[in-house]
Amino acid sequence: MKKMIRVLAATSVLATALPAQADVVIGAVLPLSGVNANGGEDQRRGIELAVAQINEAGGVLGEPLKVIYEDSGNVPQRAIDAARKLVSVDGVALVIGEYSSGITIPLGQYLVAEGVPHLNPASTSGLVRGIGATSFSMVGLDNVSTEFAAKDVLDRGWKRVAVLAMNNAFGQGVANEFGAHFAQLGGEVTTTIMYTSGQTTYRRELQQAESTEPDAYVFTAYGADGGLMMQEAYELGLQEDPWYSILITMHNADTPAEFKTGLIGMDVDYTADDTSYKAAYEEAYGQSFQSAWSGYAHDTTLFAAETIERAGSTDRPAVLSAIAELGAEGFTGVTGEIKLDADGQRMWQPYQKLKVEGDALVSHE
Amino acid sequence: MIEAQDLRAGYGDGADILNGISLTAGRKELVTILGPNGCGKSTLLKTIAGYLKPRSGGVKMHGKDVSTVPIHEKVRHHRVGYVPQTDNVFRSLTVAENLRLGARGLDRATTARRYDALMEQYPVLASKQGRKASALSGGERQILSLARALIAEPEILLLDEPSAGLSPLMLHEVFDAIAGIRDSQGMCIVMVEQNAFEALGVADRAYVLSLGQVAIHAPARDLLADPAMRALYLGGHVA
Amino acid sequence: MVQFIFDTLFRAADLALIAVALSAVYSLIRFPNVALVQYAVVGAFVGMALQQQGVPIVPAVLLASLLVGGIAQVFNAVIFQRLLRLDPAIALIGSLALSMVLSAGFLLGFGPAAQRFSVQVAPATRVFGVRVTEMQVLTGGLTVAILIAFALLLFRTPLGREMRAVSTNPVLAAATGVNTARVTGLVVFLSGVIAALGGAMLALRGSVSIDMGTNMLLPVFAAAILGGLGNAFGAVFGAIVIAAAETLITNLNFGPIVGQDHVFLPASYAPAASFALLVAVLLFRPRGIFVSEVTRV
Amino acid sequence: MSDFLIHVISVSCIYGILALSLNLQAGFTGLMNFGLIAMFGCGVYGAGLVHRFGLPVALGPALALILAVLMGLFLARLGRRLSTDYWGIATLSIAEIARIFATNLEPLTGGAQGISGLPLLFSGLRPWDGAARLALFAVILGVAWLICERLVRSNFGLGMKLIREEPQLARALGYDIDRIRSTVMVIASVIAAVAGVLYAHYLSFVGPELLLAPETFLIWAMVIIGGIANNRGVIAGAFAMQFMMAYVPFVKDYFALPSDFVAAARLMLSGGVILGFLLLRPQGIFPERVGGRHDH
Amino acid sequence: MTTELLAVRGLAKAFGLSNVLEDVSFSVMPGEIVGLLGPNGSGKSTALNVISGFLPRSAGTITFAGRDISDAPVHAITDLGLVRTFQLPSMPHRMTVREVLKAGKRDDGGRFAPVAYGPEIDVLLQEFRLAHVAGHAASALSGGQKKLLSVATALRANPKLLCLDEPTAGVHVSLRSDLVGVLRNYVAQGGACLVVEHDMLFIRDLCTRCIVLDRGNIIADCLPGELENNPRVVEAYLGKAIEKGGMAQ
């Protein structure tokens, strides 16, 4: 028993000793490990670039802006634990997070319950809308993107398609919304296959899809999953039929060129009119965008800094009303204009049609 | 050929099971170790064989101290053969494979020669060379395990209750075989037995153990005639 | 149908090597060593790392397997021999713990993403109306070759005879002059090598991520237990049964039943099929279908 | 700051309850359950399903109880003819099957996205809600501890210990091994499910990730570090592990380590602690008190 | 006429093809101490295992205290009052001698009632000379002490019939007479014993009747004193060695 008390005492001393607060601090919960680690890393890059840009221009409220990154490990409860640390120990002004909708939703609900402003930089499931009053999306939701995709697919003359999506909130949202829009526009979904992310093979799923003899395969996949799926589709000879990827940048970087020849798809448009961000990214990291999400994370950070500046303090109620104000007014970042609707969701965002050329993605109208 | 001096041994950190036992056995001699259940017979044999390290005292074979030499090295380098009590054949291996295992380390020609000789000596085995050992009867297994030890031509043979689980008829066959080995090959044999009177019938000398100590040490013939022995098994007790 | 058989066989090949290694080592060291599945991942990762250092693929895989064999021996000597003295169940917990530590090591060393050997990948060709890729044929053939080589070693050589002798009766084997510690060490080494080769074959056919060990754990165990743990070649049979069950459950079209064209069970139920089979076997035939030589106490 | 400490202690209490449950099975009865998380899952999903289908919150514990009893009985039945290691693998399989179904039975369980928005306990007491929850958890932990202590010190407890080490002797003395096992499994399962219900209403989210196998091993680490078959010890172990887990991110911040470190360190901690203790101090920090308070 | 406590009729047990027990019938009355003897491999231990429910029978019936227990599970048989010990008792290492002794009697004051160590435990500890090791781990006892503990534990269960498997093997000579005293005392208070034993002196001191098994069949059922003069018994024990020249008396 004595030992236990000693352990407790030691850890609580450790706990109070660690956080050092001087700067304006915001938190970010990202999937820095797990299957979405590449996406999470790309988000982190976007945030870093934004922080550099803000601090170069004098910071926020006269202080340098600091972002504390926490890893969700792609697990909801870890994400909530991480948020708890950010909120109660680091005392952050607001929290940016996460990547996949299945985690963003419980994370957001926790933050809403705590009264902490939550900015969603990436998750597009329709369910995000219901998180709560102090949660805001810096990205347009599925209903917008899948309608765009369904139209694009039909325009290319493919009437019967098999849909593959990962079995989580985002994938289920995409599959349902796409199916609804596609049927409404007169197409037919032959089968909808929900696969578990992180497998070592997707042959079974691919063969299930193939047996329905579709005109084309419509799929969405995270980084490593997408790469493997494209390789196996190639090996199985399924690429004789066209493949169409919803949010193609999620896995493009993880897919070797030889397995994605002829792949087309759509994604959010992250370079709007302004190419300076693209240049900064390439200079800093020596490669082109790994996904669309760095741009959104970048804009989310800029948006956050701007609201704190407007609020005049890191006081949460003040920050919240500043977000509402700025959202109604509109704010222009590298992904175009961010304007929020009554639910705090981004009303519009640009999309682009893309195709693979070698290793890179190019516009494909 | 075997000299055990004041052996003390036990399992794990348990109490001593052998409380200072000394024993000798010479060439062309069949020595049997007797005693009631739990007196330490098998433990003594295991300690001599090298399964168990003595806590004190020592074992010499051919005049060399081998107290800490593990069993497999004794078999390979000190010409020792050991036949455990039950479960003494490799059930999943064929009769031929069992014998070949016994002949490990020997060249092909020698193996073949001795193999054939054993087949001639033990016709029960010859007819079942390709069978799995698990298909043999209890007596056949006993013979097989004996043959497996003999193929390496040991000079010292340690037997742990060769009669265990055998029918009386089979028992005589096995004991006769053992006595035959001593006589024909001049081997030194130490045999632990429950079947006291049968064992005494073939043995030269006997040690009777009680609670981890030697209670009686005498020539087998004398013991067989000894009323104390009769008492031990039919209503007597050695204090 | 032909496609079904091929899918089953290739899935069985995924499992067979690791399951055989597991069974072989179980026959001598009587506890289910969960870490063996992670050895397969180590083998694949080390092979890929060597290839990235410029070692050609064949020596890279061989070198990696030998290395894993050595690692298996070290872990066995340092960890499992000591834990087994306490209790086989403790050794099982230890092997689970070792698996976690190894996963952590992979995460730090190789990152979370799936990795591949850099080999030429060609699209599948059709044989008997079934699509097979060059790599599938090659690795499948190699798997069979490794299994045959292991069988020959076990049943046709004096060393194999000693291995079988030690596994059926270690006490007697020692009494026959077999150095049981050396034979056990050798089998541990071989199990590491075979598991690593199994991992490399998997990596050659697709990709290997740090989660592979966790994902393979139960199917491999299901195969090994189905075949009767300790019965090395029963494990091959077990692998085929498990593979068939997994393939069947994902190939069944429930569409007609519910009045649609195509409704499949999600393929992610496939592992549940193998686990359920495992549980059923344990419920009704607690010692596997082929009762092995190992009598359990 | 103190909020975070309250959080860590609250979660430690919940894990303390789980550690007690595992200790009852593995520590005192020798039942090596590697699927403990499925019992916890009965509680989590009991609460979650009730919420998802709009039933009164109070039905959550009831549903959890029913699921837990069934789970306990099934695992005990499975163990009837199996040796320890086979049973361990079997329990691991059951837990994985449960997780796979939780992930895929979307209409029932909400699938991979889980069930969110469960009512948070005492949310009306803000800002004292955290402390109130902690108090509740501590009380329930205390009650669980009392139940476990009473159980292992009873005549029944002697039977458990006898079964753990000498089942043959236990049988010869007339102990009905199957019945004692089933009873222990059901009690332990219910205790774990209570922890699950509390956790679900604490996290306000229920998802299949809660049922991942490494979570079971985390609880094993707690039991092994604290001292197997020592009820106070395993609670101490739960606190120690939870605090270490919770402070890994701070270590990362402090030394500016890469973010992969957190995930790896957590795995390394549970695995390494188990291995280290098994090799160097298998009896744990607080060893079992053989003989209890009556023997000196 | 008093009714039989234990009645065994036509009991047979085969392992695979070998018949270990062929046709065994005998009974035990209250107040009796029956010795079950026989050379190695005669089936004594197997008989004990089948009667106590540890092995399934192949044929025959077993009744105990008026109930058919032929197929009853071990715990049910024990509940009726038939308690056994083992030839090589192994004891737990994380329970004390006192705890093991306590565990001999189940449901003492209720299943979930706290364990209380009453004076009867101390009496038993004294009687079996285990008081000085009462707080030690049971596994740390010597082989003989374990034997004594197992007998004491079985006695705690207040059995109607106590079945002992070689209770004296490994037990120190000075303790054997104590054991005889304790068992006599127990029988005097209404118990009965069935003892598998090698030590003839012990048998002669203790038993009221002896049953001798050979190769799965009963070859004698007599008083202990009559054993030496029973030619079948002598033959079974001494075999052909006699003819071969031994036993020259």
TrEMBL record, chain A:
Signal peptide range in chain numbering: 1-22
GO terms under biological process: amino acid transport
Superkingdom assignment: Bacteria
Pfam family, one: Peripla_BP_6
Cross-referenced Gene3D superfamilies: 3.40.50.2300
Alphabetical UniProt keywords: Amino-acid transport, Signal, Transport
Leucine-binding protein domain residues: 24-357
Family: Belongs to the leucine-binding protein family.
UniProt protein name: ABC transporter substrate-binding protein
Organism for this UniProt entry: Frigidibacter albus
Automatic annotation (TrEMBL), chain B:
GO terms classed as biological process: L-amino acid transport
InterPro entries xrefs: AAA+_ATPase (IPR003593), ABC_transporter-like_ATP-bd (IPR003439), BCAA_Transport_ATP-bd_LivF (IPR052156), P-loop_NTPase (IPR027417)
Domain named ABC transporter: residues: 2-236
Keywords of the record: Amino-acid transport, ATP-binding, Nucleotide-binding, Transport
Domain of life: Bacteria
Keyword Iron-sulfur: no
Keyword Nucleotide-binding on entry: yes
Gene Ontology MF, one: ATP binding
Similarity comment: family membership: Belongs to the ABC transporter superfamily.
Protein known as: ATP-binding cassette domain-containing protein
Species in which this protein is naturally found: Frigidibacter albus
Automatic annotation (TrEMBL), chain C:
Primary residence: membrane
Cellular component annotations (GO), alphabetically ordered: plasma membrane
Cellular compartment(s): Cell membrane
Keywords: Amino-acid transport, Cell membrane, Membrane, Transmembrane, Transmembrane helix, Transport
Record field: transmembrane: 12-29, 57-83, 89-114, 135-155, 183-204, 216-243, 263-284
Domain of life of the native organism: Bacteria
Keyword Membrane: yes
A single BP term in Gene Ontology: amino acid transport
Membrane topology: Multi-pass membrane protein
Pfam family, one: BPD_transp_2
GO function term, MF aspect, one: transmembrane transporter activity
Entries under InterPro entries matching the protein: ABC_transp_permease (IPR001851), BCAA_transport_permease (IPR052157)
Annotated family: Belongs to the binding-protein-dependent transport system permease family. LivHM subfamily.
PANTHER family xref list: BRANCHED-CHAIN AMINO ACID TRANSPORT PERMEASE PROTEIN LIVH-RELATED, BRANCHED-CHAIN AMINO ACID TRANSPORT SYSTEM PERMEASE PROTEIN LIVH
Protein name (record): Branched-chain amino acid ABC transporter permease
Automatic annotation (TrEMBL), chain E:
Gene3D superfamilies xref list: P-loop containing nucleotide triphosphate hydrolases
UniProt keyword Transport present: yes
Coiled coil: none
Record's keyword annotation contains Transport: yes
One GO term describing the cellular component: plasma membrane
UniProtKB keywords: ATP-binding, Nucleotide-binding, Transport
Record protein name field: ATP-binding cassette domain-containing protein
Source organism of the structure: Frigidibacter albus
